[in-house]
Amino acid sequence: MLYINNLTKNYGSFTAVDRLNLHIPEGDLFGFVGPNGAGKTTTIRIVCGLLKASGGTVRVGGTNAAVGSKAMKRLIGYVPDFFGVYDNLKVREYMEMYGSMYGMTYRDIARLTDDLLELVNLSDKKEVYVDTLSRGMKQRLCVARAMLHNPRLLILDEPNSGLDPRARVEMKELLKNLRSMGKTIVISSHILSELAEMCNSIGIMNRGHLVAAGQIDDIMQQLAGGSRIHIHVLSETEAAVRLLKEQAKVRVESVRENDLIITHSGTEEEICALIGSLIQNQVILTDFHREEGSLESLFMQLTGGAQ
Ligand SMILES: Nc1ncnc2c1ncn2[C@@H]1O[C@H](COP(=O)(O)OP(=O)(O)O)[C@@H](O)[C@H]1O
Ligand SMILES: [Mg+2]
Question: End-to-end alpha-carbon separation of the chain, Å?
């Protein structure tokens, strides 16, 4: 559904998104996680055709993203990270305004407005001024108007920020509902745990790079599994693998000729002892390093350091 290939965005000499590759299959509820400044909004704005990429390509359902592309606008419903101010505009008028931007007839807009307001639980607010709604209601209204033109892909940028716990639960239920209606959904957040319960797949972004992506179960397992370590041995690979498999806190993830990847759930001292015993067993190591930004520490950084 959404293919991002080598996407890069430079702001002057600063690279906000650095050769990002991501594929989101149709029907996914995808969580896009990363601390503030990771590059989520930049990526989303490029995907929505609101910002020009410095390099790489984005395709949605076979259509190439380009700034101002009408075809892309039809495919995507976008809920930005700010709501805006709408002086003297009622909920119904707000929906009419956005519907007419998509060239819809007032009859279609009226019919869909009723259906969508019901979906987002705002039916009784139709004649209420937008500016008087609570933040949670505004967010749900924004989802309703993003759905007006029946997009295939719905993208929400930090829809939960500033919402109280109850409004968050309502947003979660709404997104699950939309997914069951066949929409592909991307939701960004700087809090991993918030997305973990509702998304089926996630991508974790940090400083313009995607540091992990996949099915939520696999990622959570990796998070719980400890450090990933790369080992390169010059000889005695079999002996090394045998020895590693005997260790209680080690899991051998992959063996490719002389390159091994393991996860280690023990302490620094235990990792140190492991290197010692490999050497004692005549295994010649030329490399033993932890994967950069291990998921465990990243998880701590993302969830512990969240604002
Ligand atoms: N218009 C801009 N000009 C210069 N730098 C920008 C601009 N927009 C965003 N940035 C920088 O790009 C980085 C990524 O920002 P952003 O995509 O908003 O991240 P996120 O949405 O993950 O918080 C940040 O360091 C931010 O300061
Ligand atoms: Mg952002």
Answer: 32
CA separation for the pair 160, 276 (Å, rounded): 48
Give residue-wise pLDDT tens across range 209-249.
888 888 887 776 666 556 788 999 998 889 999 999 999 88
- The answer to whether the CB of 11 is under 6 A from ligand 1 is yes
> Which residue has its alpha carbon closest to ligand 1 atom 5?
11
252 C-alpha to ligand 2 centroid (Å): 37
Find the length of the chain: 307
Q: Are 15 and 42 part of one and the same domain? A: yes
Q: Are residues 83 and 118 in the same domain?
A: yes
122-179 residue pLDDT tens: 999 999 999 999 989 999 999 999 999 999 999 999 998 888 888 888 899 999 999 9
pTM of the model: 0.75
Check pocket membership of 206 for ligand 1, CB cut-off 6 A. no
Nearest atom (ligand 1) to Cα of 45: 17
Task: Read off φ and ψ for residue 104, nearest 5 degrees.
Answer: -85, 155
240 and 288 in contact (C-beta within 8 Å)?
Answer: no
55, amino acid identity: G
Task: Give me the number of domains the chain comprises.
Answer: 2
Co-location of 88 and 148 in the same domain? yes
| Nearest atom of ligand 1 to the alpha carbon of 9 | 12
Q: In terms of DSSP bridges, do strands 209-215 and 227-235 run parallel, antiparallel, or are they unpaired? A: unpaired
Q: State the distance from the centre of ligand 1 to the C-alpha of 175, rounded, in angstroms.
A: 26
CA of 51 to the centre of ligand 1 (A): 12
